[in-house]
Amino acid sequence: MIKKYVFGQPVCTDAVVMNIPESGDAFSVMELTESDGVKLCCRMGERDVVYGLGEQVRGMNKRGFSYVSYATDDSIHTENKHSLYGAHNFLALARKSRETDSGEGGSFGIFVDDPGRVVFDVGETKHDQLVIQAGGDCVIYVIEGEDLKDIVRQFRRLIGRSYLPPKWAFGYQQSRWGYVCQEDVREVVRGHHGQGIPLEAVYLDIDYMENYKDFTVDGEKFPAFGDFVDEMKGQGVHLVPIIDAGVKIEKGYPVYEEGVQKGYFCKDEEEGDFVAAVWPGRVHFPDMLNPEARAWFGENYKFLTDQGIDGFWNDMNEPAIFYSEKNLEKVMDEVISLKDENLDIDSFFHMVEIVTGLSNNRKDYKSFYHNMNGEKVCHDKVHNLYGFNMTRAAAEAFEKLMPEKRTLLFSRSSYIGMHRYGGIWTGDNESWWSHILLSMQQMPALNMCGILYTGSDIGGFGSDTTEDLLMRWLEFAMFTPLMRNHAAMGTRRQEIYQFERIEDFRNLIRLRYGLLPYIYSEYMKAALSGGMYFRPIAFDYPEDAHADQVEDQLMIGESIMIAPVYVQNAKGRYVYLPEEMLMVRMRSLEDYASEAMDKGHHYVETDLNELVIFVKKNRVLPIAAPDRDVKTTADIEDAPIIWFGFIETAAEYVFYDDDGISRNPVPEEKWKTVTVRKEDLAC
Ligand code: MIG
């Protein structure tokens, strides 16, 4: 049951798709105070668990810290941070406590539809208090249900169907900030193909543009771009260019001139076009919240789709600001005034602070405005909607530009609602072991919010990767719908053919292609039915008190559990089995073995080149067993299917498949219930 409560005069965020009437009941699951915005508070029992909040730091159980929804371009994802790139204001409180120490009432979910700054203090200030602080104008949805899965399913019905990527978007993808010309890209393709490694896409980072101008291609580095796109397609490789939020201010640049002329940029306090600076230097921000400006920005993607591009990533759309023109002037004056001073502890650090404070400064976000259907709205109040609407601009344009096919699209910043238009990647992580774990913990929280097409930069974006880190990371990312290796300029090269254990890497990537029938089927089922592709194990075993404690294992789809190794030098790890399961150990698509294991704790040895999965009881999974070399997802289309499973006599599997590209698959025709008998199993 969903109850809706409206406070003040909220803007329409388009986060939800269901128009439900306002509840006449008093606000029940939390205590409500309305002074200084909306404040909600409730007691948490000792064993209660809080899941959700999407892209955030820390564990699956969010208790013990506070999280701030205010989309931020912060590339250092350490435990002390309160905000990352997205704002996903949905959490579920699972009441686990026994009567004696329990808080009031049962489990519930809550969605705070407020696109401004919202704070979730999940027992940081007071261990047993959940406190949510929103602005005065917001809509709050409270969801009660049978269990966590049911609460999430109801929420997902409220916010609408998740984005459906093309099937090729599930292939292995390679990216790097620093493939600066055509020849660099060709070399990456040769590097993979030369070693028999499948490759679906190569990304173009800002290097492909002419002076970092959106919707341009540098003609010297990429002459005859359309031909080059075709050449790559001929090799089965999609090129995926980046688009940034800021539009460079430059006379004669059509996107800039048209935007100014039509009044499509965000305005400053004096009604001029707001000036900030990012990559290209000074830019204007297209007013993504103005429907006309949004449509216009979207149409600009045509420049690239006309040349055969069918996938994009939208970056810097928090929107990231290096500095604003006005603040820079002030800070410059102040720094210059210090020129001949003897800088001491206070004045020196003050100077450093004002300089670093130039970037992503909330004062700047408070100083520009949107035109939302004729109404002037301060950016700060709707800050978290910017990335969402940039991505929506692209998605809505693609519906017109390429009505017949699905496109690959994901964003860095996001808000709930954007999941209908595209996915996200989790931004600038580091080549740290702890960031494999962080990524594992973010996935189910994102899935709760409808964001299913997601993954992290495999191998780590910042810092130098190492071979073992990359291999362990791949063993987890094998299961993320977006499987992309990406790294920052200046870091060690991390394409997998750069390393010694190429055969192991090749086997792992081929295993991903083998698992694709299952991964695709489970993704599509989750998207079409409002389910979660990734789940904390407590979602499947709600009665199991150990399951709540498990922060580093995941259920994936209906049949399997994974327990990736994410510790340097580890030769294995402890795994908790909430029931008897079948452990399948795979070194390649041809080399695998299985063993039934009892419920309970186990130490599972896992060599660096091994993939281990656990199959639930009475479940099976389809695997493609291609009889030829696989270069892309197209090569497994007609591959024979073999089955792995843990069954006594027979089990049914709901197998979803489709052509992988049509925009509107007809679900009824695509769901097949397959009966698999024990004697049919390959493993
Ligand atoms: O300020 O385009 O998160 O993936 O490689 C850095 C360059 C801008 C940030 C993205 C990253 C991308 C990088 N971008």
Concise account of the structure shown:
The chain has 683 residues and is of the alpha+beta class. Helices cover 25% and strands 26% of the residues. The longest helix is centred in the last third of the chain and has 28 residues, at 502-529.
How would you describe this protein?
- This protein has 683 residues and is an alpha+beta fold.
- 25% of the residues lie in helices and 26% in strands.
- It has 16 helices and 40 strands.
- The strands form ten sheets. The chain has a nine-stranded parallel sheet with strand order 26-25-23-19-14-13-12-28-27. A six-stranded antiparallel sheet has the order 29-30-31-36-33-34. A five-stranded antiparallel sheet has the order 1-11-8-7-4.
- The longest helix has 28 residues, at 502-529.
- The radius of gyration is 25 Å and the shape is globular.
- Bound molecules: ligand MIG.
- The site of ligand MIG has 11 residues, from loops.
